[in-house]
Amino acid sequence: MALRTPAASVDRVHRLAFLGAGTMGGTIVAGLVRAGRDAAGIAVTTHTPAHREKLAAELGVQAFADNRQAAAWASTIVIGVKPADALALLDEISPELGPDNVVISLCAGLSTDLLSAHLPPAVHVVRVMPNTPASVGAGMAGVSGGRTATEHDVQAAITLMSAVGRAVAIPEQLQDPLTAISGSGPAYVFAFVEALIEAGVTQGLPRGLATELATQTLLGSARLLDEGNDSVTQLREAVTSPGGTTAAALRELDDHGLRSAVQDAVEACARRSAELAAAAEQADAR
């Protein structure tokens, strides 16, 4: 049963249901409400009643205990559960869906064809790969429409993700390389910052100061790259005087194979993403 009477004031065509509004789903819901979306037109289901009630109390959204009821209530359904649980969830809600519904999946590694196989044929399916900076409104997402999705469906998903950062439409065959850059990319950045902090400590800096220096340097450099007119190469060259300190440091990074290591890491991530997708297809076929 729904935990509250569903809002009748919002037309069904404008209603969103987040099934599995955990970390990422909850982040998007909060971003939408902050951006001015009518909270009465947003429903959530979660694994735990306490989290569901918390979202309802803090954001004013509709809280449902039943996935099928939430799906029947909404026009657009966002799937935010773990990939291993997604297909069973689609099977559960499938009887409530039809040609007027759009299903947006946040599940990594599940193709639109696989998702569509667990839904009525006319349901529109869109796949989204978000990343964790969405939690601070600085996310980057790739959006791909399935066979039945329209341009309007893709744009709707982009609008959805724009509440917590930026989003771009890409062909689905680029989802694996996108995962390797923006999906997993934050971990690469954090690993580099960890190494930079440790190097600062080794040079005698207090850990707190080394952390502040590295963090603010990352933030400032990202803003220069995002807001300035210079290319990343021009920005690097502007810091690098011939024969200077930065040149000496970059030479060490080159000697230790930084660029080839990054290439190999991205290739390994994209390959693993494709492997996981293939494994999901094979498991579903059994």
Could you list some keywords that capture this structure?
286 residues; alpha/beta; Rossmann fold; ProC C-terminal domain-like fold; 8-stranded mixed beta sheet; 12 helices; disordered N terminus
Structure in words:
By secondary structure, this protein is an alpha/beta fold. The protein has 2 domains: about 10-175, Rossmann fold (3-Layer(aba) Sandwich); about 185-265, ProC C-terminal domain-like fold (Orthogonal Bundle), CATH 1.10.3730. It contains 12 helices and 8 strands. The chain has an 8-stranded mixed β-sheet, with helices on both faces. The radius of gyration is 22 Å and the shape is elongated. It starts with 15 loop residues before the first strand and ends with a helix.
Question: Summed up, what is this model?
Answer:
By secondary structure, the chain is α/β, with parallel strands linked by helices.
State the total count of DSSP E strands.
8
- Biggest sheet layout: 8 strands, mixed
Quickly give the structural class.
alpha/beta
CATH architecture of the largest domain: 3-Layer(aba) Sandwich
Between the first and last Cα atoms, what is the distance in angstroms? 34 Å
* Low-confidence segments: 1-5
Shape category: elongated
Return the CATH topology of the largest domain: Rossmann fold
- The total domain count is 2
Main location: cytoplasm
GO molecular function: pyrroline-5-carboxylate reductase activity
Function: Catalyzes the reduction of 1-pyrroline-5-carboxylate (PCA) to L-proline.
Protein name: Pyrroline-5-carboxylate reductase
